[in-house]
Amino acid sequence: MQFDDNMPIYLQIADRICENILSGKWGPDCRIPSVREMGAEYQVNPNTMMRSYDYLQQKNIIYNKRGIGYFVSSGSISLILENQKKKLIDNDLPQLIKKMFLLGFTRENAIEAVEKGFDEVQEEELVKSN
Amino acid sequence: MQFDDNMPIYLQIADRICENILSGKWGPDCRIPSVREMGAEYQVNPNTMMRSYDYLQQKNIIYNKRGIGYFVSSGSISLILENQKKKLIDNDLPQLIKKMFLLGFTRENAIEAVEKGFDEVQEEELVKSN
Amino acid sequence: MQFDDNMPIYLQIADRICENILSGKWGPDCRIPSVREMGAEYQVNPNTMMRSYDYLQQKNIIYNKRGIGYFVSSGSISLILENQKKKLIDNDLPQLIKKMFLLGFTRENAIEAVEKGFDEVQEEELVKSN
Amino acid sequence: MQFDDNMPIYLQIADRICENILSGKWGPDCRIPSVREMGAEYQVNPNTMMRSYDYLQQKNIIYNKRGIGYFVSSGSISLILENQKKKLIDNDLPQLIKKMFLLGFTRENAIEAVEKGFDEVQEEELVKSN
DNA sequence: GTGGTCTAGACCACG
DNA sequence: GTGGTCTAGACCACC
Fold first, then answer.
1. Looking at residue B90, what DSSP letter applies?
2. For the HTH gntR-type domain, which residue ranges apply (chains A, B, C, D) (predicted)?
3. Rounded CA gap, A69 and A26, in Å?
4. How confident is the model at residue B76 (pLDDT cuts 50, 70, 90)?
5. Which of B33, D14, D15, D25 fits as disulfide partner to D20, beta carbons 3.0 to 4.6 Å?
6. Which residues in chain A have their CB less than 8 angstroms from residue B81's CB?
């Protein structure tokens, strides 16, 4: 796997794990691979892997059974979505809007652009689902 | 000034300087404050300030006259802005909107969030200009 | 059974066994269930169960007849309990009370907390014995 | 410094730092020694030291200024006391009470013992303050 | 100079 | 076998 140099590897891996949970690869209370297995898969030191697990456990997305391994929490999916939503609203969106503002977009321009963008995405998804 | 912990301070300051240029505070070939003055204003280490100027100079947004100071470049700016605008509309915005869509935002939710965000930015900028 | 994450499981089980001995469920020289039976009851790995027995045997609380099973020691227990009681009154309790005092508990707070705690334990044990 | 083998070193060091804050050695917004300095003092690897700081930052007891160091949070003292109180009520006290129960203390015995212990501590502290 | 991340390898308690 | 802790040493971004 390729890693983006602008973000810690352990966070990128945590994101990947979240994706796997969201995609249904690992359901609730499913055991995820051990630190060492996962470390081998991502070609990463077990310590680094451990950090990803630590991080996810701290966020209540996975939990630990001692001597056995890590497991997906039952509420994990909603927690992940909540986290992502929070990040989007608190960081991504304001950042983009500020950029638009500085580039001379008026309030109306901005809204219009979003409406247009949304319609396109909606249509795209509609097509995909057929 | 408050800094976002997720981005280098020198880049955040560079952004602020760009804003000031865009807002017309500093016109073409206008001398901008010295590293020390600016450093004092933003309560930041002069080294950090210097990095911001370095970065902007590298981007041809400001230029340097030795022994005198830094000045706003004339032509390059609008070109850079055009590029940014294009990139924003073609990449950043659709990407974000898609993300919102996948996270369950409805068209109305999305527009509402953008309106709210825009108003906040607008107000923020108003405050800053006083 | 629920386990406390801050203590080894085998020690927690050992405690439970001690409780059962104290409560009279298993009298002196009474044979206690096999490692497998007990492991099944507590839903625990037989290895872990074995560790509990090892630990208790080492403390002379139970003894082993090869090929037959584990048995409750006769004389040693009451002596051990006496020791524990002494240690509790002389060390553990004063230490905890001092801590409470330093953390701002009043005499009334402290007594109230103990009463509440005692009632909870009592109820818990009542439930368990059913 | 001597470390207790039953607890991770990084947590023991975190406790020591808390004590130093409580004792007033490091007031609010005071910079605490760097990871490397502290690591040298406690004869511990900087990574381990970092873990202590991580832990305390996560608990909002210290905060970080990038490139400068770690600083004591303003609300640190009440946070520390709160944590300790919580730990006492949730773990230490119930554990002790259970022990007392199993050792044959009645509710009245227990309360009496606590009253006696509290009075002794109170008197002790009175003497010390003169 | 500061913290932050990563690796490599070791040891341990626990199941 | 599992995770958890610790060390040693390296490299990096940032101030």
1. I
2. 7-75
3. 14
4. low
5. D25
6. 103-104
One-letter amino acid at A41 equals E
SS3 A32: strand
CA distance D62 to D53: 8
Tokens of D120: 């002794």
Strands of the A62-65 sheet, one edge to the other: A31-32, A69-72, A62-65
Task: Return the H-helix or E-strand segment holding B65.
Answer: strand B62-65
Nearest to A103 by CA among B128, B92, B74, B31: B92
CA distance C16 to C53: 12
Q: Closest by alpha carbon to D125, among C88, C104, C11? A: C104
CA(B8)–C1'(F12) in Å?
13
Query: Taking the C1' atom of E8, which residue's CA lies nearest?
Result: A45
Domains of chain D, residue spans:
9-76, 77-129
User: Which stretches of C33-116 are assigned E, i.e. beta strand?
Assistant: 62-65, 69-72
Q: How is residue C32 annotated by DSSP?
A: E
Q: What is the pLDDT of residues B9-33, one digit of tens each?
A: 888 888 888 878 877 788 888 888 8
With a CB cutoff of 8 Å and minimum separation 6, the contacts of D24 are: none
Distance CA A14, CA B50 (A): 35
> In whole angstroms, what is the distance from residue A16 CA to residue B27 CA?
46
Asked if residue B78 lies in contact with residue B84, where contact means CB atoms within 8 angstroms, the answer is no
> What are the chain C neighbours of A67 within 8 Å (beta carbons)?
45
Alpha carbons A32 and A49: distance in angstroms, whole number? 12
Task: Give me the residues of A, 60-99, that contact C with CB < 8 A.
Answer: 66-67
What local confidence, expressed as pLDDT, does residue C130 receive? 59
Write out the two tokens for A83: 């986290």
Task: Report residue D27 as tokens.
Answer: 């007031």
CA distance C45 to C74: 28
Question: What is the mean predicted confidence (pLDDT) over D86-94?
Answer: 87
CA neighbor of B29 nearest in space, from B81, B72, B89: B72
Distances (CA, A) of A116 to A108, A120, B84, B111: 12, 6, 19, 11
Whose CA is closest to D32, among D11, D8, D50?
Answer: D50
Percent of chain B with pLDDT over 90: 9
Alpha-carbon span C56 to A101, nearest angstrom: 72
In the numeric block, the tokens 């004389």 are attached to C75
Rounded to the nearest angstrom, the minimum Cα separation between D113 and chain C is: 8
Domain B9-76 class in CATH? mainly alpha
